[in-house]
Design goal:
The protein is an alpha/beta fold and 273 residues long. The protein has helices spanning 2-14, 19-22, 80-84, 92-101, 111-116, 118-126, 157-171, 189-195, 217-227, 246-259, 267-272; strands spanning 55-56, 66-73, 105-109, 130-134, 179-180, 201-203, 207-208, 232-237, 263-264. Strands 2, 3, 4, 7, 8 and 9 form a 6-stranded parallel beta sheet that branches. α4 (92-101) runs parallel beside α10 (246-259) and α9 (217-227) runs parallel beside α10. The chain is globular, with a radius of gyration of 26 Å. The termini are far apart.
Length: 273
């Protein structure tokens, strides 16, 4: 190590006029601060009675006029043939409308939907306007007698939710939220207990839009506008074939609620407040 240093020094003495030896030394960059903190984890609710998965239905009624629009991206595990035949379980026009109107929203996505539409799932998951949450992998019901949905067995409930998170990761969703919406909104104590190890907050709603299978956009719009209160969670759908009016409803509801002084937020903000 000594010899190379002496050679460089001699070169500088003999060629003092050269810019290489006269150059101003580069400043030393400080090392990253040891106190740098990682981004905070999304807010969740404390476990319910008996340590069961907590359930969130709406935010505070007194902390401002906030409202969360939520959209279920439904696709059951056995609908692949229908998608292959041309049925649209996505709704790009709705997502474009939300972006155009600058409306933050939470999308409860099934793992099967993410597998069918990985580019759209990735786009939603990487857009700060949205947050992706879990709607199960299969969209099978977690209780019996739930709108005619097939039923997932009790010993498979946890695996079904975890499988959805795995599907999100494969699609390129970087940070799916620890929120879960039961298919059909159907749950019981057994289902809440089964999901306790997953650490999710179950998210329901207090405003049913009625957009599922609706053909009258004006009726859906009225139902939303009449139901929204400060802290409301509105359930809608992001599926063209099953909810064809939703984009039109959003384009009408959003400006009217803003005129009433409402501010649109994601579910995480409601839970955090």
């Amino acid at each position: 190590m000594i010899t190379p240093v002496r050679r460089v020094t001699a070169a500088c003495v003999l060629s003092a006029a050269l810019a290489a030896c006269a150059a101003t030394p580069q400043p030393v960059r400080p090392a990253p601060s040891a106190t740098t903190t990682a981004p905070s984890a999304p807010p969740t609710l404390a476990p319910g009675p008996g340590g069961l998965t907590p359930v969130f239905k709406n935010g505070s009624r007194t902390h401002g006029r906030t409202v969360a629009l939520t959209f279920d991206a439904d696709m059951t595990a056995d609908q692949g043939a229908r998608a292959a035949a041309g049925e649209h379980f996505d709704n790009p026009g709705l997502i474009a409308a939300l972006r155009e109107l600058k409306v933050p929203a939470t999308v409860f996505m099934t793992g099967r939907w993410a597998e069918q539409y990985p580019e759209q799932a990735r786009s939603l998951g990487r857009d700060p306007l949205f947050e992706v949450a879990n709607h199960s992998y299969s969209h099978y019901a977690f209780t019996g007698d739930c709108y005619g949905l097939p039923t997932v067995s009790g010993d498979r409930m946890r695996a079904d939710v975890e499988r959805a998170y795995a599907a999100f990761r494969r699609a390129g969703v970087p940070d799916a939220r620890p929120y879960f919406r039961f298919p059909g909104g159907c749950y019981d104590r057994r289902a809440l207990k089964a999901l306790t190890p997953v650490g999710v907050t179950a998210v329901q709603w207090d405003v049913v839009s009625g957009d599922a299978f609706a053909t009258d956009a004006e009726a859906v719009t009225r139902q939303v506008l009449e139901g929204v209160r400060p802290g409301s969670v509105v359930v809608m759908h992001c599926t063209r074939s099953a909810a064809p009016t939703t984009e039109r409803v959003v384009r009408t509801v959003v400006p009217q609620l803003r005129e009433r002084g409402f501010r649109f937020v994601k579910v995480s903000e409601l839970i955090g407040s």
